[in-house]
Amino acid sequence: MEENHSQASEAIAEGDIMERKKKKKKKKKKKKKKKKKKKKKKDDDDDDDDDDDDDDDDDDDDVMMMRMRMRMMMMMMIMMMMMMMMTMIITRNNLLVSESALRSAGTVLSRIRAPPPAPWPDGGPKSLRSPCCGLAIYKNLPS
User: Fold this and answer.
1) How far apart are CA 28 and CA 34, in angstroms?
2) Which of 2, 108, 127, 143 counts the highest number of beta carbons within 10 A?
3) Where does the record place the region Disordered (predicted)?
4) Which residues are CB-neighbours of 113 under 8 A, at least 6 positions away?
């Protein structure tokens, strides 16, 4: 008697589970059909009520997406501004460094004096002089 009762309760439980699964499948199918109906017909009053609920969910999702997009855009703008500021500061520092280096190099070059004139009375052959730094470099000196 007890075994029959337990078997019956198990069968009922399995039947309930199967019915629930079938209902879930039917609900999913109904939702798909409603979406199709929404595209085809909007005149039905019953479908409009269900569509309003779906539209509210869609609106909430759209609002969330818009907020996310706005946040991402703001983050991108802030990152771009920071990168521009950093590049400006770095280039400014490099320019300052290069200017100071050029000044110091210019003072060093200006301190170099030209060598004394050549032993020739006319100052030596002009074609052998190098224009670099005012220094005269002689080649093929006559012996």
Assistant:
1) 10
2) 108
3) 1-63
4) 134
